[in-house]
Amino acid sequence: MRALVQRVTYGAVTVANEIVGKIERGLVVFVGVTHTDTNETAAFLAQKIANLRIFEDDAGKFNLSALDVGAEFLVVSQFTLYADARRGRRPDFIAAARPEAAAPLVESFAQELAGMGLYVARGQFQAKMLVEIRNDGPVTVWLDTDELRKR
């Protein structure tokens, strides 16, 4: 799985002129799923992000996690995180899992976060979404479970 994590003061997803998910202070997480991902991968990624120390303490240092500050989450599925643009000008998405495999894993990821007592709003899978983000910092972190597991 891949995740693009953005610390925000506000995040919202609108589908067909209706807000389907909204948060205040927290993290917007764009999640991409590949063919080899499992529920265990989703749980691993959720734990990593929930415990990632990207919120500032009183001294202005990144010492606090989403769990520490009670951050809210907005989870948005994004197959384009697996875009491959090495050849030509049009990216291919062969590495992205098919919707029937990806949707349950994105939901598993969101449920894992909710199971930690965190508020989790969601985008709408396979919908054309308008995503509003007020990036705080800006703080943006890229995570890939294949890379994280190499350590």
Sequence of secondary-structure elements: EEEHEEHEHEEH
Which sheet architecture does the biggest sheet show? 6 strands, mixed
User: What's the number of domains?
Assistant: 1
Strand fraction: 35-45%
The structure class reads alpha/beta
- In oligomeric terms, what are we looking at? single chain
Rounded to the nearest angstrom, the radius of gyration is: 15 Å
Distance between the termini: 16 Å
Q: What would you call the shape?
A: globular
The CATH C-level name is Alpha Beta
What is the CATH superfamily classification? Answer: D-tyrosyl-tRNA(Tyr) deacylase
Query: Which topology does CATH recognise?
Result: D-tyrosyl-trna(Tyr) Deacylase, Chain: A
**Low-confidence runs of at least 5 consecutive residues:** none
CATH structural architecture? 3-Layer(bba) Sandwich
Specify the helix fraction band: 10-25%
Strand element count:
8
Provide a count of the helices: 4
The mean pLDDT is 97
Explain the overall architecture.
25% of the residues lie in helices and 37% in strands. The protein has 151 residues and is α/β, with parallel strands linked by helices. The chain is globular and about 45 Å long. Strand 4 (55-56) and strand 5 form a beta hairpin.
How would you summarize this macromolecular structure in one to three sentences?
With 151 residues, the protein is α/β, with parallel strands linked by helices. Helix content is 25%, strand content 37%. The chain has four helices and eight strands, in the order E-E-E-H-E-E-H-E-H-E-E-H.
